[in-house]
Amino acid sequence: MNNDILNTIASYGVLPLVHIDDTNDALPLAQSLIKGNIPLMEIIFSKDKTTDSVKNITSKEANIIVGVGSVHSVDEVKEVIENGAKFITTLGFNREVVAYCVENNIPVCPGCTSLSDIEEAISFGLKIVKFSLAETYGGIKTLRSLSEAFPQINFIASGGINNDNILDYLDLENVAACSDRFIPSLNLLNDKDFNAITLECKKLMSRIFDFTIGHIGINADTKENAESINAEFTNLFDTSSFETEMAIFNGNLTEIMKKPFLGEKGHICVDTRDLNRAMAMLKRKGVTFNEDYMFYNGKGQLVTAYLNKEIAGFALHVRQKMY
C-alpha cells in the first residue's frame, strides 16, 4: 500500500478533524488550513454532505490533502475516492474496508484499540494506524506499552486530544500525528471565522516546533583564540564551560570553535522540540541539509542537522531540545 500520504501527515504531526455542516464552508476552511501551514484535513463522513465537501475542495484547491474518516463500507470508500479524497480512516478495524483499500493502493488508517486489531493491521502490511478514543483507552500510558509490544507500528492518536495534551502525545516516538476536533476550534468553524482558524493553526505549529536560539557559534580558528574568547564570556557572565575536540562551550551562550568551521562569521544553533518534523517543514520550503554535518546520540538518533544555507554570514543548524 502507498504510505506516502500517511507519512506526510506524520511529518506535520497534526491532522485537523472536521464535521462540515455547510458544504459551502469546505473550500474556505481548506484555504484557511493551507495558510495556517497545516494543509491537511480529515472530514468525518456524513451521507448527505461529505462527498460535496470533498468535491468542493479538490476541484478547486490542489494544495491540500483531504481524507475522509469514520467510513463504514466499501461503497462509501468508492464514493469519496471518486470525488477526490486521498485517504481513508475508520473508527474500528473494518476488515472489508481495509482489504479493499490495500488491494486498490488507497492509503487507509483503521482504528485499532486492541492487540488483535493491531495484529490484523500488521497482517495487511500497515505501518500507521489510528488509536481511536485515545483517552478512553488509556492514552499515553497505553501508547507507551504498545510501543514496546509493536515497535513497527505508529499511531494517529484521536479522541480526547486537545491543546493541553497534544505535545505530550507528540513526544511519544510511536505517535505519528494527533487528530481531533480541537483544531480547528468548533466555535471558530461555526462562526465561519476562517482568518482566526489560520492564526490558530500557526500558533499550534509554533508550539510543536518551539524554535529558540540554542547558542551562537564563534569561529575562533585556533585553540588559543578560543580560550581567550571563552575567558571573556566567563568573566562577564560567570558562566561555566566545557571543552570538546572541536570547540569550547560557554554555558548555553556560545560554541567557540577551536578550528576553522562552517559559516563566514560563525553559526547559529536553533533548538526545536521536534527535530524530525522541523526538518520536514524546512524541506518543504526547499531547504537542503549538509549530509557531512549530521550528528547522532548514543542511541543512533539524529540530534543535530546543519542546513546548506547561511544567513548574514552565519551557518545554521537545528538541534533537538532535551527536556
Task: Tell me about this structure.
By secondary structure, the protein is of the alpha/beta class. It is built from 12 helices and 16 strands. The strands form 3 sheets. Strands 10-11-12-9-13-16-15-14 form an 8-stranded mixed β-sheet. It has a 5-stranded parallel β-sheet with strand order 1-2-3-4-5, with helices on both faces. α2 packs parallel to α10. The radius of gyration is 23 Å and the shape is elongated.
Task: Briefly say what this structure is.
With 323 residues, the protein is α/β, with parallel strands linked by helices. It is 36% helix and 25% strand.
Describe how the helices and strands are arranged.
Layout lengths: L3 H9 L4 E2 L7 H10 L4 E5 L5 H9 L6 E5 L4 H9 L4 E3 L5 H9 L4 E2 L5 H9 L4 E4 L7 H11 L4 E4 L8 H5 L4 E4 L7 H5 L3 H16 L2 E8 L3 H15 L3 E3 L3 E4 L3 E4 L8 E7 L2 H10 L4 E8 L5 E10 L2 E7 L3
Parallel strand pairs: 1-2, 2-3, 3-4, 4-5, 6-7, 7-8, 9-12, 13-16
Antiparallel strand pairs: 9-13, 10-11, 11-12, 14-15, 15-16
Helix pairs in contact: 2-10
Mean pLDDT: 96
Main-sheet strand order equals 10-11-12-9-13-16-15-14
Radius of gyration: 23 Å
State the distance separating the first and last CA atoms.
36 Å
Binned strand content:
15-25%
Q: Enumerate the spans where pLDDT stays under 50 for 5 or more consecutive residues.
A: none
Global structural class: alpha/beta
Q: What percent of the residues sit in helical stretches (DSSP H or I)?
A: 25-40%
